[in-house]
Amino acid sequence: MSDSSTPGHAATSPRTGSSVLRQIVGGDVVISFLAVVIALAIGGVLIAFADEQVATTVSYVFARPSDFLAASWEAVSEAYKALFRGAVFDYEADTLNRKVRPLTESMTFAIPLILAGLGIAVGFRAGLFNIGAQGQIIVGGILAAYVGFAFDLPPVVHLLLCILGGALGGAFWGFIPGILKARTGANEVIVTIMLNWIAVSLIAYVLTLGRFNASGTGLRSPQIDSSAAYPPLIPDALFPGNTFRLHWGFVVAILATIFVWWLLDRSTIGFEIRAAGANPHAARTAGMSVGRITVLTMVIAGALAGLAATSQVLVGGGSLTAGVAATYGFDAITVALLGRSRPLGTFLAGLLFGAFQAGGTLMQSVTPTPIDIVFVVQSVIVLLIAAPPLVRAIFRLPDPDAPPRASRAATKEAAA
Amino acid sequence: MTTPVVPVTAGTPVDDLPTGGPVLGRISYRIPVIYAVLAAVSLLGLAGTLFRRDGVWGQSTEFQSRYGDQWFTIPNFSVPSLLSIIVLTVLMAGAAVYAYVLTAARRTVPVWLHIVVGLSFVVAFLTWAGAGKTSVIPVTSLLAGALALSVPLIFGAMSGVVCERSGIINIAIEGQLLFGAFAAAVVASLATQPYLGLVAAPIAGALVGALLAWFAVRYHVNQIIIGVVLNTLVLGLTSFFFSTLLADNRETWNARQPLGIIEIPLLSQIPIVGPVLFRQTILVYLMYATVIILQVMLFRSRWGLRTRAVGEHPKAADTVGIHVNKRRVWNSILGGAIAGLGGAFFTIGSGLAFGREMSAGNGFIALAAMILGRWNPTGALVAALLFGFSKNLGNVLGTIGSPMPSQILAMLPYVITIFAVAGLVGRVRAPAAEGVPYTK
Q1: Which of A96, A127, B8, B389 could form a disulfide with A277 if both were Cys (CB 3.0 to 4.6 A apart)?
Q2: What is the mean pLDDT of residues A57-68?
Q3: Is residue A1 part of a domain?
Q4: Which of residues 27-66 of B touch A (CB under 8 A)?
Q5: Looking at residue A247, what is its pLDDT?
Q6: Judgement on whether residues A135 and A209 belong to the same structural domain of the protein
Q7: Judgement on whether residues B208 and B93 belong to the same structural domain of the protein
Q8: What chain A residue is nearest to B436 in terms of C-alpha separation?
Q9: Measured between CB atoms, which of B222, B365, B372 is closest to A7?
């Protein structure tokens, strides 16, 4: 893959101080907001298109257009209301616990997305396209679960060892493409894709083995010990009688975000990672070992993805199943892209996608709209944010980086 | 042939350095080593495990070539297992020695030797897997299944070649395959005419290719980003329609419309390979044509020269008057259309209705095949066939029962690909301007 176009390297072009308003109107925040608006609008069109009520009214749309519009509005608004109720605040619920629970659900869904997304972001910064988060999550999950059910240890130590196990498992699965790339030049995209598939077979095989297969079905490992589970983040003392699933894994995600920020922006290794990503030839000329950086980056990326697995396995009554990684490994790529490979950006993008997941789950159960619409909305958002000129063209916004019109006219005159 | 190395110390005058004779690079013994490893695996792994069984010399493996109706068929035949493996091992060891001699003399190892060693190892493996079993090894259906698994991969890899040779990274092959499969199924079902689906599939793929080109060329967005996002977009769209429109009215929207099998007279009567290659749907014949045309066009035509120029050195191409971005857009659309056609194989080509996430990662494997084949149509074809064969080998061995657990067999094609990428191919060189947007 090409090295010169590493994702997440926004050009830091000089900006004139005179056009603060143009910055705000045409800048990143507004673009991001408008991208979400457009994506939701496109999603709305699709929801209306697939709705049966709308389909019946469209047959006489010229006779009574109001019916068609009402039916469309009904379908779209019901879906998006459910999305909001599932993701942020359920205003229709009767107890405070159930009203607030959606927000904590969104945060719970966000944990693996943030952690795996951070792993992919670190890879991007080094110019490595690591598609292997899926496999790294699976292998991390196998190790975390094994430590979780096979050993009998005191509470805090047990949990920490399980987390370490998860990180090591992921790191090992990241090490393979790293060392192959460094030693033989094997393309990391191919190797990580293949390792994803190998991990899928591996977990199916592991689940049929001895201690993993106590139930004899080959589908589910024994439950992890309660001492190995993340405790709930919001204890009963703070919020009596809550049913939140949110656990200390969220703190791990926050700590990992801070760690990645420190690693990339404050440490020597991070500088080398970014240098190798921006221009490997220059980095090599400057005396850095690009091979060593490649291996190290992949190990860190794998460890972060392995941590993502712990949030799935190390919960009360949790166990290892073949579906431990769900689609988090692939969603994490989009999360990292949306977050522009920056730690904070990835964290926020993970929260947004977690909210979509939680909201989509409720939407699917109470309205006819399936959760798949969430993928469409998510991908349109990322596409649009990646192409700010397109969003500006749609809304006829000024370009903050272009010279103001008056001076542009002046240069034209001067040229003539 | 190597020149003696004289250690150069600080005091050595420059004149004392060895002169004369060409400066030669270090000899890489990679190929003989790989051959030797295969021979060793065959001897220790295959023959070795058989030795431990009782009455091993009496055990035999039965092969079957019969597949459908043919004028004449080779009857099932059986070979003594251990003896055959030993003979094949000797053959591989001999090839390793011959390859060593050739490499040491700085000559290239001929292609036929690769084929001999590869075939020997596969036959030895099959003989081992079927040793002493009552079930037969179905050779022809093994090959037919391998081809079927390879068809979408080959189309996808060709799409990758067309795009990447012009400098556009096409990660969206997966999405193009999936959208092609979707469009083919829906249009064929609505029109109750499978051949109309064959028209719709490339259009759908081209649409994804056009989006890729639009964002990559017009807005200079990183091509890997667009590719990944387009995959998610297509997955979301098709799954959404699958669980709404298609599920609500299955008979109209998503009925099975298989393409008919066209048998080529005479050619399809050849034993073993005949029915595999020449008793297929029109889609497979289109695949043969695509590979041949692309191989010729890419290296023998004006279009091919321009495509490669744009992908290697766009500035030079622009200087001689080639429209770089226009060429990239059209190649991207063409590539999308090819992958879309390949997607049709999942639905109308296999006589299935559309299913959620039907492409199942084939686009990425096609990408791997393209890189393994070093951005060449024929190379990509061989890589895709290798993958399809090893995948089907796992399937067939799983059903006839082999000494290995099925989950380990399922890893086979992916492990082989990693070995191929890391061991055989090593550092491949992509088109120089790949992924770099062109601005004047």
Answers
A1: A127
A2: 82
A3: no
A4: none
A5: 92
A6: yes
A7: no
A8: A5
A9: B222
CA distance to partner chain A, nearest, from residue B285 (Å): 28
Q: Do B223 and A5 touch (CB under 8 A)?
A: yes
Confidence of residue A58 (pLDDT cuts 50, 70, 90): confident
In chain B, residues 140-199 whose CB comes closer than 8 Å to chain A: 169
pLDDT at residue number A406: 52
Q: Which residue of B has its CA nearest to A179?
A: B422
Rounded distance between C-alpha atoms, residue A314 and residue A293, angstroms: 31
pLDDT at B76: 81
Do residues B58 and B179 share a domain? no
Q: Between chains, do A186 and B425 touch, taking CB under 8 Å as contact? A: yes
Interface list for A 157-186 with B (CB within 8 A):
180, 183-186
Closest by Cβ to A187, choosing from B236, B237, B421? B421
Number of domains in chain B: 2
Q: Residue B17 domain-assigned? A: no
What is the interface size between A and B, counted as CB pairs within 8 Å? 163
Q: Which residues of A touch B219 (CB under 8 A)?
A: 386-387, 389-390
Q: Which residues of B touch A387 (CB under 8 A)?
A: 215, 219, 221
- Is pLDDT of A359 > 60? yes
Shortest distance between the Cα of A181 and any Cα of chain B, in A, equals 8
Residues A99-154: tens digit of each pLDDT: 989 999 999 999 999 999 999 999 999 989 888 999 999 999 999 999 999 999 99
Which structural domain range is residue B59 located in? 30-135
* CA angle (B228, A381, B202) in 5-degree steps: 45
The pairing of beta strand B261-263 with beta strand B137-138: unpaired
Question: ipTM value of the model?
Answer: 0.84
Put simply, whether B245 touches A (Cβ < 8 Å) is yes
Q: What confidence category does residue B19 fall into, taking pLDDT thresholds of 50, 70 and 90?
A: low
pLDDT at A237: 82
Residue A374, chain B, CB below 8 Å: the answer is yes
* Nearest chain A Cα distance for residue B222, angstroms: 6
Same domain (yes/no): B123, B150: no
**Which of A184, A193, A375 is nearest residue B422 as measured by Cβ atoms?**
A184
B 392-431 residues with CB < 8 A to A: 405, 407-408, 410-411, 414-415, 417-418, 421-423, 425-428, 430
Number of domains in chain A: 2
Residues in CB range of B123: below 8 A, 6 or more apart = B84, B88
Looking at the fold, whether B328 and B220 belong to one and the same domain comes out as yes
